[in-house]
Predict the structure.
Amino acid sequence: MNDKELFYTKLKGQLEDTTKFPSDYMYKFIVPAIGDQQKEVQRVFDNKGAVIKTKKSKTGKYISISVVLKLDSAQEVIDYYKKVEKIEGIISL
């Protein structure tokens, strides 16, 4: 099992122990301000009822993105992380 799989297995266990689904879940990401990464993140959550807020960093080099979405299971939380991690330059918090 690689580090990423281990991380997701641990996260799934923690979510199942601490969260009653369905529940609102908040994702936080940081992307470079230059490029289409912000739009790519928005596309992943498009038409899912997500509330997306963005904020530029003080220097203007980065954009923080907060996404709140009602999800039905810990596995669904992880599935969205896996979709977003394919976006180049993204940092998940």
The beta strands are 23-32, 51-56, 62-71, 91-92. The longest strand covers residues 23-32. Helices lie at 3-18, 37-45, 74-84.
